[in-house]
Automatic annotation (TrEMBL):
Keywords linked to the UniProt accession: Molybdenum cofactor biosynthesis
Biological role stated in the UniProt entry: Catalyzes the adenylation of molybdopterin as part of the biosynthesis of the molybdenum-cofactor.
Protein name per UniProt: Molybdopterin adenylyltransferase
Species assigned in the record: Thermodesulfobacterium geofontis
An annotated Gene Ontology molecular function: molybdopterin adenylyltransferase activity
Catalytic activity field: molybdopterin + ATP + H(+) = adenylyl-molybdopterin + diphosphate
Annotated SUPFAM superfamilies: Molybdenum cofactor biosynthesis proteins
Pathway annotation from the record: Cofactor biosynthesis; molybdopterin biosynthesis
GO biological process: Mo-molybdopterin cofactor biosynthetic process
């Protein structure tokens, strides 16, 4: 079972001015996979807060997967990638490349997403957009990648190559 944390970055959502549909969508999709969502928070787009929560969820709570939603665009307060970059030890550029690849046929605005993915200790961290529609389009296609990555991060020695 994969232990998951979902962190929504939203100034309005953190103040209760907007419902967190993308975080709730991620919870539902994770539970369909029988993954256990053990942490869920909505916080404002504040880099230091994001960094502190990511570090705590990895270093103290030992989560397998952290998914952030929101704060990946070009709006001045979008700082999720910068916070994530400060936390991760190994970047995985293929995941955000794949996310953009999935999204390009749906919207050319996919070119504006700046999300990152990487590993800190034994935790996979992935930044996703803040749109519930985007989450529904992207997340199901990431599931096999996430499962494989979590296994490898935990030290699974089996071969990755397919015959």
């Amino acid at each position: 079972m994969i232990k998951v944390g979902i962190l929504t970055l939203s100034d309005k959502g953190s103040k209760g001015e907007r419902e967190d549909l993308s975080g709730n969508t991620l919870i539902e999709l994770s539970e369909i996979e029988n993954w256990k969502v053990v942490k869920y928070e909505i916080i404002p787009d504040e880099k230091d807060q994001i960094v502190n929560i990511l570090k705590t969820w990895v270093d103290k709570d030992g989560l397998d997967l952290i998914i952030t939603t929101g704060g990946t665009g070009v709006y001045p307060r979008d700082v999720t990638p910068e916070a994530t970059k400060e936390v991760i030890e190994k970047e995985i550029p293929g995941i955000p490349e794949y996310i953009r690849y999935i999204s390009y046929p749906i919207t050319p605005m996919a070119a504006l997403t700046r999300g990152l993915a990487g590993v800190r200790k034994n935790t996979l961290i992935i930044n996703l957009p803040g749109s519930p529609k985007a989450i529904k389009e992207i997340f199901p296609k990431l599931i096999p990648i996430i499962k494989h990555a979590v296994e490898k991060i935990k030290g699974d020695p089996s071969e990755c190559a397919r015959d």
